[in-house]
Specification:
heterodimer; A: about 120 residues; alpha/beta; Rossmann fold; five-stranded parallel beta sheet; two-stranded antiparallel ribbon; 7 strands; globular; B: about 400 residues; Spore Coat Polysaccharide Biosynthesis Protein SpsA, Chain A; nine-stranded mixed beta sheet; about 50% helix
């Protein structure tokens, strides 16, 4: 069972994603902001991160760079209410970019695809 | 291959090398040489640095222009023997020299660069001292500058080798001393790699060797000698695409285990406002015309290379008028995959196979221009990303047609 970490500052989003993704058979853990996110990833070892961009006190795009530099192959899906952040060059360090919607079909499809990706680890 | 060397300062060891490959660049080489020196002094003052011009025995005074540029950093000139050309040959000499100097890191910048700043040296070099082994450039380019990159190299590397490196043939790179040794000892080396195939060879070798890669944001667009995609591009096309196909054949055990693609870490932000690249004009009529001229010459060979369903769809595209015109990306991906297989299986016909792909590339480029002509740079970029997804979705076709790897 793949473990997914949801990072989003809106509680109702975390709850919605948690319920829906658990129904899909995923183990879901959540974080309400970017505080000690790398430590959390180190400890929990998720298979995928769903990361909000605009969070109170945190910029998901900056968190993404920190994650990418440390966990080269960990899939990260940026999930934002705004599609305008796609224009920010930092967003290309994400595996995918999904615009938030109450219908999670696209997010679920993207998660499934991101978990399918297989590349050799760096330095292997 | 031996190289000729002039090393007036008697440099025997360096931590960091900037290499500038050239052939007859007397008019332009001074500028990148000076910027390299400024960058090394500003950002790598604690490192022992050297700038190396690796040249193809230019007769236009390139060496004199290089040595004539006043720099704080010492300089070395290397050259291939008279008559030996090729950027790859220049870089092979550079790999040797980097190993001899026991350098930790090497940066390569093109000799015709007009937009390089000292910060480019920082951005291409700094990640090499932070665990990355290979640094590819990331710069804003005009949507019609780099059509081989946009329509062939980037989507193929991404869909076959599984790593998203946006400028795999950017020409400006950073690599570690360890990777220089790996390059030097690598068994896959041929005449195409010795020429313009070298950039893509370096990128694919780094990816397939699982070297930690990052993309460094340069801030300014790459301004050099832009080329109209409709202009003659034969040798460069054959060398770049032939190298990709060769590496697909030689590394199939590596890439067949790969599914979908992964993004690459990015380095270098906070550069302020993004500068827009200069416009690149395209002769649309010439692209369409050259696509159809290819039909007259190469259709019998296309019949041999392409799977019947792809040939049938291509025939439909050939029947389209100049506008509306569309060359579907799914078809283009499958055509490239069919050509890669033909190139693997029919080695003696390799050059003819590549020549026959050029008109199809013109057709796809024409379609790309029509689709993106009203688009902003950002929209065109998103269109290219969407094309890459189509390539990745076509990958099962390649896996099926390619067959099992030799044991």
């Amino acid at each position: 069972m793949a473990k997914i970490l949801i990072v989003d500052d809106e509680e109702h989003i975390r709850m919605l994603y948690q319920v829906e993704l658990q129904e899909e058979g995923y183990e879901v853990i959540t974080a309400s902001d970017g505080h000690r996110l790398l430590e959390r990833i180190d400890k929990e070892k998720p298979d995928l991160v769903v990361l909000d961009i605009k969070m109170a006190g945190y910029n998901g795009l900056d968190l993404l760079q920190e994650i990418r530099n440390r966990y080269y192959n960990l899939p990260v899906i940026l999930c934002s209410a705004y599609d305008s952040f796609k224009r920010d060059i930092k967003s290309i360090a994400a595996d995918f970019y999904v615009v938030k919607s109450s219908d999670l079909t696209q997010l679920k499809k993207t998660i499934a695809r991101a978990l399918e990706s297989t590349v050799p680890p760096e330095g292997a | 291959m031996d190289y000729y060397e002039e090393n007036p300062d008697g440099i025997r060891q360096a931590d960091l090398v900037v290499g500038i490959p050239s052939y007859n660049e007397a008019a332009l080489i001074s500028f990148p040489t000076l910027q390299a020196s400024l960058g090394l002094m500003q950002f790598f003052r604690g490192k022992k640095s050297v700038i190396i011009n690796c040249d193809n025995h230019s007769q236009d005074g390139t060496k004199e222009a290089f040595f004539g540029t006043e720099t704080e950093v010492p300089k070395i000139y290397l050259s291939t023997p008279e008559g030996v050309k090729g950027k790859g040959n220049n870089l092979r000499n550079l790999f040797k020299k980097v190993c001899d100097l026991q350098a930790e890191a090497c940066i390569v910048v093109d000799a015709d660069l007009k937009s390089i700043t000292p910060r480019w040296i920082k951005h291409l070099g700094e990640p090499l001292f932070q665990d990355f082994g290979f640094v590819a450039p990331l710069y804003v380019r005009h949507k019609y500058d780099g059509t081989i990159t946009n329509n062939i190299a980037y989507p193929l590397i991404r869909s076959v080798f599984g790593r998203r490196v946006r400028q795999p043939i950017g020409g400006d790179f950073g690599f570690s001393g360890k990777l220089a040794k790996l390059y030097l000892d690598h068994p896959l080396w041929d005449e195409k790699v010795a020429h313009f195939g070298i950039d893509i060879w370096m990128t694919i070798t780094a990816i397939s060797s699982n070297i930690p890669i990052c993309q460094s944001y340069m801030g300014r667009p790459k301004i050099h000698k832009p080329k109209d995609p409709a202009a003659d591009l034969g040798p460069m096309f054959r060398q770049v695409v032939g190298t990709i196909f060769s590496m697909m054949a030689n590394l199939d055990r590596t890439w067949k285990a790969i599914r979908w693609s992964k993004p690459t870490a990015i380095f270098g932000f906070g550069l302020g406002e993004i500068e827009l690249p200069p416009p690149v004009s395209v002769d649309k009529g010439a692209l369409y015309r050259k696509f159809h001229q290819g039909e007259e010459t190469f259709f019998p060979l296309w019949e041999e290379i392409l799977e019947p369903e792809n040939l049938s769809k291509l025939s439909e595209v050939l029947e389209m008028s100049q506008e509306p015109f569309d060359f579907p990306t799914d078809l283009w991906a499958k055509i490239l995959f069919d050509f890669a297989i033909a190139y693997r299986d029919r080695g003696q016909q390799g050059e003819e196979i590549l020549d026959s792909l050029i008109p199809l590339y013109y057709g796809k480029t024409y379609s790309f221009v029509l689709k993106t002509e009203e688009m902003s740079a950002q929209q065109a970029e998103e269109y290219i990303e969407d094309q890459c997804v189509v390539f990745e979705e076509a990958r099962p076709y390649l896996d099926e047609k390619w067959g099992p790897s030799p044991s």
